[in-house]
Amino acid sequence: MNFDFSAEQYMFQDSVRAYLADAWSVARLRRLMEGDGFDATLWHGLTDLGLLSILVPEEHGGMGLSFVDLALVFEECGRALVPGPAVETMIATDVLARFGTQEQKAALLPGIATGRIKVVPAVVEADGGSDPAEVETIASDAAGGWVLNGRKILVPYAGLADKLLVSARFGATAALGLALVDPTRAGLTLRPQALFDPSSRACEVIFDNVAIGSEDVVGAAPIAASVDRVVDAGAMAAAAQMTGIAARMLDLAVDYAAQRVQFGRPIGSFQAIKHRCADMMVQVETSRTAAYYAAWALSCDAPEAVQAVSMAKAYCGDAARFVCNEALQIHGGVGFAWDLDLHFYLRRAKTLEYSFGDASAHRERVLSAALAAREAA
Amino acid sequence: MDFNFSPEDDAFRHEARAWISASLPEGWGRTVHEPEDETERYMSRLGWEKKLFHGGWAGIAWPKEYGGRGATLVEQAILAEELARAGAPEGLNIIGHNLTAPTLMHNGTEAQRRRFLPKILSSEEVWCQGFSEPNAGSDLAAVRTTAVRDGDHFVVNGQKTWTSFAQYAQWCFMLVRTDTEAPKHKGISFLLVDMSTPGITVRPLRQISGESEFNETFFHDVRVPCENLVGGLNEGWKIAMTTLAHERGPEDALGRQIRFKRELGRLLDVAKTQKRGKRAAIDDPALRQKIASSVIEVELMRLNCLRSFSKMLQGKPLGPESSFQKLYWSHMAQRMYETALETLGPAAALGAGDPATPARGMFQTGFLQSRAFTIYSGTSEIQRNIIAERVLGMPK
Ligand SMILES: Cc1cc2nc3c(=O)[nH]c(=O)nc-3n(C[C@H](O)[C@H](O)[C@H](O)COP(=O)(O)OP(=O)(O)OC[C@H]3O[C@@H](n4cnc5c(N)ncnc54)[C@H](O)[C@@H]3O)c2cc1C
What is the average per-residue pLDDT within A245-251? Predict the structure, then answer.
């Protein structure tokens, strides 16, 4: 039993943080509001650091490590507002490594490890709410494969992804599974969506009789657990990123409060401000506890993994909401200015808060599990 | 990072679980409960604590030379989890175990350790904490109770207040002023006082819960041998800070988590049986969300402790950041009891004595008790000051 990271894991965090401090900034992020939203230099830098190969098994040219090795990295990605589809591709990597066929892994994982291939989840539907099982996209039986019909929204960076991981119900049994679909396939339309976070990109994706082969189904035949895994991994990664954002917002608030003078003294010497920062610190630290535990639980398929993930998504979501809002408040008028960076953190955190199930949905999952456990005891 | 337990840890857990279930009365927590009467309840807790000692489960993480098992922090956490699972009672000598013992291990002389630690372990000697005074609460360094040297004794005069368990305690550790001229932090000493010494009067004070856990304690020409001074003369403040770090730290929190887990389990049961019109309280979606929050927050309390434990295991010292634990659990526990009363609905208005009160009034009492969580061991405002100034480095 050890609830701490290893020296190597902390060193890796340090190198990611140092790289991002040097090579990335909100100023550069702002440039992504124009164009395709992709920064090739950053992508190569992250690839060189090895981020995208961490989850790729060694036999496919990666490091064969786990989410525990990525928890601190996700936190740094949140902290520095690293744009997609880096984290998204890491989530897809985990799912492919677990559920993909040998051919799928051989075709995609080596390219992911070198940064050549990007894969993103396409699991959100307009009427789907937070439950991954509420899927209306249909894969109907067809000769030698399937035909996809349906509509996904908020598919991150669909325009520049090589493959989409599309959740669908397959055939007469309506079995849940994931399809690997090339976004250039015939019958597939992308519509870039206007986003709350203008530094990122996502599309609505419409599938109109898109033909796919059985080799395009993750695991060859639909596997419901693969859909759950995308959502759980996505929720955990979102929790860790929100933790990083909250930690950064707390730092910004504390720094600003030390500099800003009103009534002849730094506002940070006012107890109302100090106490707010202390409450923010409690929530940031507890977010870390929750997010790290979820990363560990998923990495080893612990029996309590689903609860751990839901605890983290719910707690970290509420905490990020509180910390971001209070950090803005502590900045006063300048906190409301477009030119100050705060709103980029706020917007990213808010987007993550509602991705892969919101806090209420995850609380419900925790409670159901707790009641079942009590029943069994 | 690894939450899996080694085979040795699993064996330890087995041993603990078996012992606990054999040692608690048959039907514990279902048909058999703690006594209603307060004094009887404390005595039964003392009995349980002594049973733990005789079974070899007291102070397991203490060094072997002082009667512990030299258990790892992990084993300590496992024992806490197993006690929680069984819904075991709390102890009475919590202050002795959690505050006096670590303070003496860090700052006591070898003679003091040999004299006091074994009887803390066995709970033959129960301890109380004489820090607060009528005019020294949050501003603890303002203590006025004096101790004046007279040969090989100190003579203590003054008043302490809110002294928990003083009426059951054989010993008290206290802060006394030994230099009235020096700046307030520099004239304080840390004394160990035998509660049977002539000149000590203990007057129980009634608390909002109706219980009388805390007391006013008066000292009139109380003679305390000089060998009961801990640390140097006028060095008491530094020692008090070690004591407070333990009072607010993860080991204390892990113990409390036992109680919160147990009561949360009962809350889930009550939510299923308590009706809201035609449906059970647990089927009210708004209430479900709040109960779920408590399930999450209580579990994160345990995990926060384990994260601090892992730091301690690597020899990183407990600093002011231990304040975050106390600030976290005190507020989350208050939310839990608010939700518990909401679960009871109109029945929240019943007193503990009414036969229709769900869970024997546990939640009404718990709610009232929980109001103290953000006051004792340093109020939340003081914890926030400490975090802001010493952890976040904000300006004074
Ligand atoms: C159930 C219970 C058991 C206790 N047991 C013990 C015991 O065994 N031994 C013992 O020594 N003491 C004990 N105490 C006393 C406890 O430690 C004190 O009550 C506590 O430290 C607060 O002191 P006070 O009551 O004098 O309140 P005050 O210090 O007068 O505080 C009143 C209010 O002012 C606020 N305040 C004070 N200073 C500041 C500041 N600088 N900034 C912002 N706000 C401030 C406080 O947060 C509080 O809200 C116990 C208390 C309770 C409730």
Answer: 98
